[in-house]
Design a protein that fits this description.
This protein has about 210 residues and is of the alpha+beta class. It has helices at about 10-40, 135-145; strands spanning about 50-60, 65-80, 85-95, 100, 105-110, 110-115, 120, 125-130, 150-165, 165, 170-180, 190, 195-205, 205-209. It is elongated and about 80 Å long.
């Protein structure tokens, strides 16, 4: 005898099973409709990210086209939703130059961000003797000679939304922050220790979810 909900015989047991199956399917449909309506009504807003500062410990381009860099950056995130929480299940931060990754990825510990809540992270991002594409090395050398280097600090990860007791599936989070660093004028920053300089940036980042 088939175990499908609609294929039982005409006995009373089959009718009971059909009603149970119908109730389960109806419950699932109601839950899905409820989640959809809550999602549409609340209209979750993407978190806001701001790159606050960057402390440069090392930034050296050597031959043949090898870059050694070490930064500590400060990124602030704000959940702008008043009724929706955000789970940051995975978040990696790294630096790029002209779309080429120049540092290793640094992991941010998983965290939950409540309604209208702020989080601030200060990870180190670094790379030792990273090979740079020849055309990027030429452009980077020119920028260094002029004293200004333009980098992109990226955060890449997975987030989930929490609405009441409901938690959504995972969404891809991509953050891009412009870092325009004046390496030529160390007076533009604050000296930290003997060789490091901290530059205040306060740049709003682009966020895609």
């Amino acid at each position: 005898m088939s175990k499908d909900c609609g294929n039982h015989g005409g006995g009373g047991g089959g009718g009971t099973v059909s009603r149970i199956c119908g109730a389960i399917i109806g419950f699932i449909i109601i839950v899905l409709i409820t989640i959809f309506l809550v999602w549409v009504i609340l209209q979750p807003t993407k978190p806001r990210f701001i790159l606050q500062d960057a402390t440069v410990y090392a930034f050296n381009l050597s031959q043949p086209n090898l870059l050694t860099s070490n930064f500590q950056i400060t990124i602030a995130s704000r959940n702008r939703n008043s009724r929706i929480g955000i789970y940051y299940d995975r978040l990696h931060v790294y630096a790029t130059y002209r779309n080429q990754q120049i540092t290793l990825r640094t992991a941010i510990p998983p965290t939950y961000q409540g309604h209208k809540e702020d989080n601030v992270w200060s990870p180190f991002v670094y790379g030792n003797s990273v090979p740079i594409a020849p055309f990027n090395a030429v452009a980077l050398g020119d920028e260094q000679n002029r004293g200004f280097v333009t980098l992109i600090i990226r955060a890449d990860g997975r987030v989930r939304w929490k609405v009441g007791t409901l938690i959504t599936g995972k969404y891809h989070l991509l953050v891009r922050c412009l870092a325009y660093i004046n390496l030529a004028d160390k007076a533009a920053g604050v000296h930290v220790g003997e060789n490091a300089v901290k530059y205040m940036l306060v740049n709003k980042c682009s966020v895609n979810v």
